[in-house]
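Example 3.
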Amino acid sequence: MKNINKINNIKIIPLGGLGEIGKNITAIEYGEEIIIIDCGFTFPDSEMYGIDIVIPDVKYLVDNKEKIKGFFITHGHEDHIGALPYVLQQINFPVYGTQLTMALVESKLIEHKMLDICELNVINPNDILQIGDLKVEFIRTNHSIADSCSIAIHTPLGIIFHTGDFKIDFTPIDGKIIDLARYAELGKKGVLLLMADSTNAINPGYTMSEMTVGETLNNLFGKCTGRVIVATFASNIHRLQQIINSSQKYGRKIAFSGRSMERISEIAINLGYLTIPEGTLIDLKDIKLYNNNKITIVTTGSQGEPMAALTRIAASSHRSINIEKDDTVIISATPIPGNQKPVSKVINDLTRKGANVIYKSIEEIHVSGHACQEELKLIHSLLKPKFFMPIHGETKHLIQHGKIAEEMGLNKSNIFIIENGDILNLTKKSARVTGKVHSGKILIDGSGIGDVGNVVLRDRKYLSQDGIITIVVVIDRESQAILSGPDVVTRGFIYVRESEELVKDIRFVANKTIEKCINSDITQWSQIKRNMRNDISFFIYGKTKRNPMIIPIIMEV
Amino acid sequence: MKNINKINNIKIIPLGGLGEIGKNITAIEYGEEIIIIDCGFTFPDSEMYGIDIVIPDVKYLVDNKEKIKGFFITHGHEDHIGALPYVLQQINFPVYGTQLTMALVESKLIEHKMLDICELNVINPNDILQIGDLKVEFIRTNHSIADSCSIAIHTPLGIIFHTGDFKIDFTPIDGKIIDLARYAELGKKGVLLLMADSTNAINPGYTMSEMTVGETLNNLFGKCTGRVIVATFASNIHRLQQIINSSQKYGRKIAFSGRSMERISEIAINLGYLTIPEGTLIDLKDIKLYNNNKITIVTTGSQGEPMAALTRIAASSHRSINIEKDDTVIISATPIPGNQKPVSKVINDLTRKGANVIYKSIEEIHVSGHACQEELKLIHSLLKPKFFMPIHGETKHLIQHGKIAEEMGLNKSNIFIIENGDILNLTKKSARVTGKVHSGKILIDGSGIGDVGNVVLRDRKYLSQDGIITIVVVIDRESQAILSGPDVVTRGFIYVRESEELVKDIRFVANKTIEKCINSDITQWSQIKRNMRNDISFFIYGKTKRNPMIIPIIMEV
């Protein structure tokens, strides 16, 4: 007989996804077992120059490796699976998820040449897995990607319910409605803690059904006389299906453009998540074989990403697509915060080239994948949790979701707005924050994991503002005479051909400083360099009101 | 008798404000006369590293200096007056505008120490100035700054009507409603060309009256038990007045925080645009003398600008304001595109510190200053122009405004969606684009005007991505032996203390390249440097998948 009944507490430790959108990962620790829900990345913010992606710091999990039972993934979006290739390198444990989710994880691991060393397990919604002393149940939900699940963890202390990302869609494209009955059942059994998606907690009302987008698409397709180019998220399989349906209705062939669009549509077709009638799918290079009014192109770039297909089309740098006068471009997405300007640029560029561009402000060609306030209330009312912890959101979203829970009658002291790394410690009857574990961001730049830190980022920012000036001088070790230089090399500071005078002046200042140092018996190179930096910096600021980085280099021979 | 009747055409030459938001400036050229409307700057886009502001390139005006009659300013926003200190240095001609507008221009010229060399003329709305053969009429309009005007230029060929930025507000705070009667009168006389603000042309319906914000503010103030901190645009005098009114209603003292807030409120109070009851205005340093529920602080930073007061309050780096538990922060503005993330960060930081933060998604505490579609239709219906040219907007806004004009019955061939620099040539009966003049952006960085060009910007971007590696080597001129180095200095590439191995390898690669060159009788430094750059770049990319800038420097002694 195990000592299962002696364990009277359970720890919830979010390591990402709180106080931020993305990088979702939560550890649930019961005795000697840790269940990990999701393992995503986030995109760098604008101050993180040169960084490709940001993943969660999982030191706590590495330190508690022996307890880990596996990764349980709610759905296949990057902010839920994207960090797996990096994290699995440190803690390699089985990964569980639905078919489409696992297919996307698989494709990711193949890219990182890691598939053969990882264990992937496909589960079905409604499956309940016995994991050590715990039961992990996947429950169907709706979201902007097919095959999304909430996860309920049955513990001897009660049910821990994690919604994953979700919305309530009564008319989803695949007919698979969120399993509200099971939510209600679990609510009756007694939910100890609810963790729920807060992304849209600020937005009143309901998120519209995905189906409404199909109606708008049909209307638009009906009016188009030339090609239709639709940009959307590659992973939004239901959106792709609706674009295919509208195309078929109007006798259009479909071509996919963009690497992730090609990759994900292929996976979705192979697994039967995407249905394309025989002969409808054509290769992008064959679009010229058909009349313009018989062509639909589905492309990446709905967020104005610099290298994505639509951005290249807008910039006239796409290999096989040039905008023509009767093209209609539909941007079936809304810009996520931070992307408004690049998306606007794409719209303007396409418009200027003569395309008729349809975007969210003009037609309802997008719906969110996240629950708005009334949907959140429905979920709260079904699950009736004892304790509540809003997840997946910036602080403002979490706070707002907390207010909703309060309006629903939950006591404020039972609502926990916490931060990444906080330990929420639950017993059958109580919950409180009992400490903090190490958590943070790991920056990925090229193939380097975490080797770019604050010093490097600060330098990149500094360099980006006013550039760099390098001053090199060769000095004789014995006589301390200047043998060569000072030579001045600048980058990102000023256009040198037009500023020869300034460069000459910098050389002069450097010379003077070195002479002064030597004459005052300052012989430490570090001191001479410091003086050079100060004098040149002062001189340049006076002349230009700029602060370039200044690097003096002294070479001894 | 002048040959005025022989001039049968008039040229409209926008030099800024088309295909962009900001940097508004338009030249209207009739025979030997040029009238300039507005002279604004815009903010750099995210790729313009280190640039402070962007002003229009006015080479065309400099080349045609002898024709210029003056600058006619519609209102005092930076995107309409901000380039004056730079442009007046090149073409110093009289500036005309309403009282508040000219006070703001004056304050700007004082800052640039230029006031004594410039001629500023205060006019009243309804004034008609005889400028050479033309009459320039200022007509009152509504906007998010007091004292805004449209401008009608009476020419022998017909009226050229420029709306400036505007909205229609039937209940403006100062009671001064847009002079629709005069619009109608001019429409009856016959408007040859209408140029109208397109900023909100994508938005259906009407922009709400500024007064509605006052009602929301009153409601909010009624509920606040601690301090109220309101962030808004300093130039939105009417908003300031409403904040003052609400404060007074609830017996609160007012303190201003932020340099532009202090500067502009002082100007507005002195000129009587802002009415503050005796004893209500207090100094920021005195807020501690009153109970929290008797204090309103009005601050800059509604756009999350890094150095603005609210941003510093949020980051706990403001000298005299720390967030306390019962503070209410009202952000009475919406983020302009590109600022969503910084504004969100400010909201999250304030929320985390315990403030109750009210922003546009939660309460209606802001209205736009620009006309929406139905207002634009009203203006079109009153002015009934023969030709129409949408202005003030990105391409997508201009196109949408063009569609509105078409819906209003204007022939498509009478609508001109043109670009900065295009010459729209009008006769009494015709209009067409007859050519293009030089136009463009001048980047201001520190005290430099236009000395940062594409090469410098490209380098700054490059530097910001993966940093820079400088490799210095000293070579004997005679023997070609390496006397010192190669030494490696990196910035923004990698944290060197943790990567000594890599730096050693780079030195090794550099050494090998130099030796190989010398052994193969390559003696041209430029060739050796090119080889070093290539070899090191290849090596580093292989090791790190990064592309830092590589600068080899060879010093001869």
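Chain A has three domains: 10-205+368-449, 217-357, 467-556. Residues 479 and 518 of chain A are 10 Å apart (CA to CA).
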